[in-house]
Amino acid sequence: MPVITADGLYKVFGRRPERGVEALRQGRSRADLREDGLTAAVIDASFEVEPGEIFVVMGLSGSGKSTLIRMVNGLLPATAGELRIADRALTSMKPAEVREVRRKRISMVFQHFALLPHRTVGENAAYGLEIAGVNRAEREKRANEALAMVDLEGWGSYPPSALSGGMQQRVGLARALAAGTDVMLMDEAFSALDPLIRRDMQDQLVELQQRLEKTILFITHDLNEAMRIGDRIAMMRDGRIVQVGTSEEILNEPANDYVSRFIQDVDRSRVLTASGVMEQPPAVLGAGQGPRAAHKLLRETQNPWLVVLRRDRTPAGVLWEEDVARAVREQTEDLPWSAEHEMPVVRHDAPIADLFAASARHLSPLVVVDDEGRFAGVIPRVTLLTAAGALGGEQDAVTTITGGTPVLDTTGGETR
Description:
The protein is α/β, with parallel strands linked by helices. It folds into two domains: 48-77 and 92-271, Rossmann fold; 275-415, CBS-domain. Helix content is 38%, strand content 22%. A hairpin with a 4-residue loop joins β17 (408-409) and β18. α14 (291-301) packs across α15. It is globular, with a radius of gyration of 27 Å. The two termini are 51 Å apart. The model is unreliable at 393-416 (pLDDT under 50).
């Protein structure tokens, strides 16, 4: 079951907003409503957020994203449509029930920290628990645990003014973690931070989400940030959601011209990942097989190398044809591992930009593994260069790999 479900949500501000909803359903525009003194902030928004997902809503100022997140936490009632938190319809709850959901199911991280200056860092981290009526000993314990999660252990007794901007934002994150809610809402949470601190916070958020499996709805106007941290992204324009998809889906299959223009300046090498360019090898070899079986596969596939897999599908190494041929001639029983052909292993979610250095150091293909370390595919060097060329930077990519002027060895057809 999705943790958050929005079905045909509308939010119209002004007198008799229901008239605005009906007008929009009949095809009138947002601008038409302004002539009637109505403001359509969110129009027919539908989406689902799955458990443990970072779902990013992004758009320019005025697109409706901040209004949408305030509807999700119950601060703004929907004019029309349905909003569900797990199996409960938030849009049909009484105010007291909405407050109870906010205390127990949803926590919020704000853009400008929202720390209380007269309270210590620890008291700020525990504030949500205090509002919920948790006893002092328990809330201090949970606040200290949350501060440790965000690398602020030992800072609990300090005032917020003693902390840098990035540290203060981590206090806000710790406050949300201490609350122990299933859902975290983050409204432009990192936009006030310097670029380097912002990137550190993005890394920390992704790491925490992987460890704690929180469900996160994240609002941003920064497309690079959205594509860096989001499992899926909802693109908003003029109150409407115009596309929902993964980073790669939005980059490769933009829904309309607006999305195409929006993504044209994105550094795709930082967004597209190893799983998006990897391929399946012609054959793989079991770790229990010997040189003769390897030699037979190499002849049949006409491939110069073989990936060797253990029984649990984790990669054991890469064999090359010259090593296998020598082992067969010498009648060796064991697989002929060669230190010269060390196997480079990369995660499936590694950005393409991070793969060039490993590819430059090894003749062997990059071996891609999943989250459990199991074999997922391979990326030969020529495949990586082809992917770089498709991104519009083939020459730059080759220069990056070689560390200087590209040199093509025509005798072997391989870039050295």
